Amino acid sequence: MATGENVTPTRQYSIAGLFKVEGTAIALVLALLILVFMITAPRAFLGFRVYMSFMATVPPPMIIALGLTLVVVAGEMDLSFPSVIAMASYVFCILYQNYDMTWVALLAALAAGTVMGFINGLVVTKLGIPSLIATLAMLFLWGGLTTVVSNGMSLAIPQIEGDLIHTMLAGRIGVFPVQFLWALAIAVLMWLILNRHRFGENLLFIGDSLRVAKVVGIQIDREKIKLFTLMGTLSALAGVFLTLETTTYFSNAGMGYLLTVVAAVFIGGTSIFGGSGKMAGTVFGALIVAIIEAGLVASGVQGFWTRFFIGLVFIISVTMNAALEDPDKVPLLKELRSRARK
Amino acid sequence: MSSTPIVRLENVGKQYGKVVSLKNVTLEIGSNEIVGLIGDNGAGKSTLIKVLTGVEQPTSGAIYVRGQKIDAASYSVKEAHKLKIETVYQDSSLGEKQPLWRNFFVGRPITNRFGFIDVKAEKKVANQIMRSTIGFRGVGIDVDTPVSRLSGGERQGVAIGRAMHFDSDLIVLDEPTVALALKEVSKVLDFIRSIKSGGRSCIYIEHNIHHVHDVCDRLVVLDRGEVALDVPTSSMTYTELTDFLMSLHRQRVVGAA
Question: Which residues of A touch B55 (CB under 8 A)?
Answer without folding.
Answer: 214-215
